[in-house]
């Protein structure tokens, strides 16, 4: 005796967003009305409140039941159905029914990872682990055949990936707290730009963001070396840094075909040869066009202008791309220090100008002094450095960064004051009191002046002992 009251054949299509658009055909080859189909097909589906929360839509007079992406894989993996209806599956519905249990098992075992292709498009999506899915299908011919059929079904495969991603979000990152934990644990998923993955393959990218463990006992490091007696030019060097001892650095040379050369521990050899080609690709994608293009990568000397650009811009791009970058020890402090322009009061007084020194209008002779980092330059020395047109110069045994914008501000400030006319005693007094007040409350003043200091050069006054005594008497 046939206990089935009716038979329904289910067919569907997956949208690019992973939603399942489902329709049914009955024994008489008539389309089942959408409301009726969702009441029967989802009668035991608690997530959709037994089908009542699902919407329907029409396409060419066919009523479709819309199953949201996040519910697609869980529903088709379990398929709790009314027993008095004879259900059959065709086309994509049959394929989804076969693959959903495999994908649900991967959800249960957390066998998923961020999608590399989506990240390069500026999006966050989740992908199943291809190797794990293939292993899950092994031993079952139907599962293996269904998995193989995905290769020729790009539209269906895209929708299935979107449904899987939505299911991951729903199950593991559906609350604000869970989403916040994800951001805290893997910040590079959100803070890095898509361009930061330039030159990486999927495995190296997953390791760079911390999702996948890097089993190599070392990490690649780029170091900028300053000129010395042995090699009188700037240069870049690729190093291997021991993870257990970060002070242990092994130089590595890469040829243009990705072949590594160097003296590293024997236990590192397999990892080095396995990753060298990837390092070369990443370097060429991350570095400017004029660096790393020779037959012996990174062997070419760098000009001062190129070294300046590396210090100020290229190194930051490399950090965003997941590289460790070592810069000269002096750079961090030097890059924070703003140039200071000082009017150094001459030892002579203003009597030679025929005025009383104690008058506020009295004129006082001065010489310019410019401080850049730890270097104190005279006006002539400063003019000589500017005339050289370089951005990194050695002065009295120290490297000095010369930012063109700040140098131009100093020159404008100097040009705005006629040195031949001197400074009035009132100007000297005001500058002295202003700088003394700033020194007295340095921390608060520094916080308030942070933005202003970045935009202009500060003018200070350096008094001789005679004027210090006079100002002290006035106080």
Which percent bin holds the helix content?
40-55%
Count every beta strand, where a strand is a DSSP E run of 2 or more residues: 21
- Total domains, how many? 3
Q: Structural class of the secondary elements?
A: alpha+beta
Provide the β-strand percentage band: 15-25%
Low-confidence sequence ranges = 349-358, 447-456
- What is the molecular shape? elongated
The biggest sheet, with number of strands, parallel, antiparallel or mixed sense and barrel status, is: 6 strands, mixed
Give the distance, in angstroms, between the N- and C-terminal Cα atoms.
115 Å
Q: Quickly count the helices.
A: 18
Gyration radius, in Å: 36 Å
Tell me what the structure shows.
The chain has 475 residues and is an alpha+beta fold. The chain has 3 domains: 6-171, no CATH class; 197-327, no CATH class; 334-474, no CATH class. The chain is built from 18 helices and 21 strands. The strands form 6 sheets. Strands 8, 9, 10, 11, 12 and 13 form a 6-stranded mixed β-sheet that branches. Strand 18 and strand 19 form a beta hairpin. The protein starts with 5 loop residues before the first strand and ends with a helix.
Summary, kept brief:
This protein is 42% helix and 21% strand. With 475 residues, it is an alpha+beta fold.
Give the topology, please.
Elements: E1 6-14, E2 20-25, H1 34-41, E3 55-59, E4 62-67, H2 69-78, E5 85-89, H3 92-108, E6 112-114, H4 116-120, E7 126-128, H5 130-137, H6 141-149, H7 154-172, H8 176-185, H9 188-191, H10 202-208, E8 218-225, E9 235-242, E10 249-255, E11 260-261, H11 269-286, E12 296-297, H12 304-320, E13 324-326, H13 331-336, E14 340-345, E15 363-364, E16 366-372, E17 375-378, H14 379-388, E18 392-395, E19 398-401, H15 404-415, E20 423-424, H16 425-440, H17 442-455, E21 458-462, H18 465-474
Parallel strand pairs: 1-5, 8-13, 14-21
Antiparallel strand pairs: 1-2, 2-4, 3-4, 6-7, 8-9, 9-10, 10-11, 10-12, 14-16, 15-20, 16-17, 18-19
């Amino acid at each position: 005796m046939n206990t089935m009251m009716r038979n329904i054949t289910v067919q569907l299509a997956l949208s690019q967003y992973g939603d399942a658009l489902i329709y049914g055909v009955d024994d008489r080859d008539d389309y089942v009305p959408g409301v009726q189909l969702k009441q029967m097909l989802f009668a035991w589906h608690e997530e959709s409140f037994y089908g009542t929360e699902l919407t329907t839509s029409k396409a060419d007079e066919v009523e479709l039941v819309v199953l949201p992406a996040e519910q697609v894989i869980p529903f088709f993996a379990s398929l709790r159905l009314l027993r008095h209806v004879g259900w059959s599956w065709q086309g994509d519905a049959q394929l989804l029914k076969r693959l959903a249990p495999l994908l649900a098992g991967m959800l249960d075992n957390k066998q998923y990872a961020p999608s590399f292709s989506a990240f390069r498009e500026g999006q966050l999506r989740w992908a199943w682990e291809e190797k794990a899915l293939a292993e899950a299908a092994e031993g079952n011919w139907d599962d293996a055949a269904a998995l193989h059929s995905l290769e020729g079904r790009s539209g269906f495969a895209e929708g299935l990936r979107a449904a899987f991603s939505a299911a991951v979000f729903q199950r593991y990152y559906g609350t604000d707290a869970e989403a916040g934990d994800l951001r805290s644990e893997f910040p590079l998923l959100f803070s890095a730009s898509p361009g930061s993955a330039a030159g990486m393959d999927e495995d190296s990218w997953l390791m760079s963001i911390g999702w996948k463990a890097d089993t190599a006992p070392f990490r690649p490091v780029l170091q900028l070396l300053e000129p010395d007696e042995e090699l009188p030019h700037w240069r870049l060097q690729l190093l291997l840094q021991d993870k257990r001892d970060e002070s242990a650095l092994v130089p590595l040379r890469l040829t243009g075909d990705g072949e590594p050369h160097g003296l590293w521990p024997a236990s590192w050899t397999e990892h080095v040869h396995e990753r060298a080609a990837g390092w070369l690709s990443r370097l060429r994608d991350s570095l400017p066009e004029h660096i790393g293009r020779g037959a012996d990568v990174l062997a070419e000397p760098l000009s001062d202008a190129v070294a300046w650009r590396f210090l100020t811009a290229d190194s930051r791009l490399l950090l965003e791309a997941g590289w460790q970058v070592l810069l000269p020890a002096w750079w961090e402090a030097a890059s924070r220090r703003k140039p200071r322009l000082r009017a150094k009061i001459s030892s002579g007084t203003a009597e030679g100008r025929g005025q009383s020194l104690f008058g506020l209008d009295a004129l006082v002779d001065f010489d310019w002094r410019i401080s850049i980092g730890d270097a104190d330059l005279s006006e002539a020395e400063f003019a000589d450095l500017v005339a050289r047109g370089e951005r990194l110069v050695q002065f009295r045994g120290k490297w000095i960064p010369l930012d063109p914008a700040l140098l131009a501000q100093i020159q404008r400030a100097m040009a705005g004051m006629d040195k031949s006319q001197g400074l009035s005693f009132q100007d000297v007094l005001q500058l002295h009191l202003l700088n003394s007040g700033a020194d007295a409350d340095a921390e608060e003043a520094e916080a308030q002046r942070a933005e202003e200091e970045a935009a202009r050069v500060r003018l200070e006054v350096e008094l001789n002992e005679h004027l210090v005594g006079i100002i002290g008497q006035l106080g």
